[in-house]
Amino acid sequence: MKKSKVLSLLVCLVFAFSVMLTACGTTGSTETPTATATPTATPTATPSQSVAPVNTEVGKPDRIDITKTGYFGDSLDNTASKNNYMDWMSEQYGINFKIHYPARNSYIEVINLAVAAQDLDGMVQLFNSQGVREWKADGLIFPLDQYLANNETFNTTYLESWKETYTYDGELWALATGDDNLPSTLFARSIRGDWLAALGLQKPETVWDLYEASYQFTYNDPDGNGIDDTYGMTSRTTWLMQDLFQAFDARLNYEGDSLPIWNPNTNLWEDSMLKPEMVECLELLQKMATENVMDKEAFVHSSSVARGKVQSGYYGGLFYWDTWIQSFETSVKQNFPDAWMDGIYALKGNINVNINSYGIGEGVPPVVMTSTTPQPEETINWYMNIFYGSAEGVFRGRYGIQGDFIGEGMFTLSGNKVYLNYFLKDGVVTGWGAPAISAGNPEYAIGTIYEVIYNSPDTAWNESTTTRVNTGLQQRKAWFDEAVAWGGLYILPQSLKALTSDKYLTISADMLSSSQEAISKSMISEISIEDALAKYRSTAKALGAQEILDEANAEIGQTGTQKY
């Protein structure tokens, strides 16, 4: 266990961590404190079980701690649901479930400090495989397969691809949150389709088309109100600018970071910061920032602020998770009923093929078990069987409290139909949020094996919501299929997502800090592009990046040509 933090700082911040984890007040709650929705006019009994089967010979743990983001929203959202769910799960399984939920914008800092102080037990959600590797290298987590060797669920229904995703040095170090084994880690650009139509523009195909659309969004009054109150696009750091960089072939990695990446068109590990294409990309970003076409606050505000700007109806779009295209449209329509969003999965530019990446069945994000967990074997076996071993368990982790009758609880399971139950608050249909401990399972996949039915006392809302959601799924599939057909998307193998050497892990944070500084400062003309890139090159060279890049290419039988 590493003890590299200054003790006084640790004590203060771990105390703050404890407060942030256990805060369960009602501040920010927007839902009723009950866990039962108003039933439909004709409640129907279902054959669902009150307790999902858990087949294990391992004894129960006294307690299962789970630390994650997005648990019924952010830390102050839906606090009644947060507490009700923990109580309900504890009663169902006879195990004390304690779920901790630090705020999203400080999550990583909080859990890093807590785990370093040995004050973080149980199952912990990280954000990526690099985080898993770092915690593994620091001795903060257990390898999991040593405890799951005889677990029936793990050996029969847990996907082999999920095991491969987080197996390092022959051992499994994290569990997949889960998914329905459909295309995942999909980002797309949401763009105001109604604004394009009003200005007589086609949906952008190239990065330069996007610039032109964003320029007109900013200066040509796309909403027709005669007021200068619209903006081209917003972002949050390079994470939400990925399509711009990829179009130039100044590629970012799969997390939108300006770090060394594998290029599918050259089969080489490259550092885009050394490429002339990066200069071209930064020149466009600088132009967009100077002309106020790109949000100048992109490197200082949070993702929630960026989302809020699009939802306000005054920003032309954002590159974000593709599921948000419809969410943005729904929000904008509240103030602008005729608004609608279009979706773009990849932009052409210097390259016209293999531009943006996606995965299949990765089940991200990863969930690890800390090395201070008191009952590791019991904890991991029951966690595995509860959330992966049955339809009831998967949906309880995904949707929340299960009811025995349609209209009861957060969801009701009846055969292959999943009723998502909603209630009325002041005459408005309101949702529960979700625990999001699991995010799917191919055996219980939504849309193929199980049908979702939206259920509330408002039958008109049920019909419109079902139509909207299904239409959204069909739209995203059409946009996705279109991008695949012309070659804009490619599957990124797990083994080529990121460099994994121990030496790289020790310098990657410094490399990222230097590259982000170069991009952000050159974008707003605080420093010239040439000077910014030269400073980065010098920093990376001093850190030993050349050796790491050369070794990475040698491992795949290639010889790189880039020199720092």
Write a structural description:
This protein has 564 residues and is an alpha/beta fold. The chain is 39% helix and 13% strand. The protein has helices at residues 7-22, 79-93, 107-116, 129-137, 145-148, 152-156, 160-165, 193-198, 207-219, 242-248, 276-290, 303-311, 324-333, 376-388, 391-399, 459-485, 502-523, 529-543, 545-555, and strands at residues 63-67, 96-100, 123-125, 167-168, 171-172, 175-176, 183-184, 187-192, 261-263, 268-270, 317-321, 341-344, 356-360, 366-369, 402-403, 411-414, 417-421, 423-425, 428-430, 451-455, 489-491. A hairpin with a 4-residue loop joins β9 (261-263) and β10 (268-270). The protein is globular and about 60 Å long. 45% of the residues are buried.
Q: Report the biggest beta sheet as strand number plus sense, adding barrel if it closes.
A: 5 strands, mixed
Shape: globular
CATH topology of the largest domain: D-Maltodextrin-Binding Protein, domain 2
> Mean pLDDT, rounded to whole units?
89
CATH class of the largest domain: Alpha Beta
Q: CATH H-level name of the largest domain... which superfamily?
A: Periplasmic binding protein-like II
Strand order of the largest sheet: 2-1-3-14-6
> Strand tally, please?
21
Determine the fraction of residues in helical runs and give it as a percent range: 25-40%
If classified by CATH, what would the architecture of the largest domain be? 3-Layer(aba) Sandwich
Count of distinct structural domains:
3
**Uncertain residue ranges:** 1-20, 22-52
Please compute the radius of gyration using only Cα atoms. 24 Å
Given the helix and strand composition, which structural class is it? alpha/beta
Q: Strand content of the residues, in percent?
A: 5-15%
SS element count, helices: 19
State the distance separating the first and last CA atoms.
Answer: 35 Å
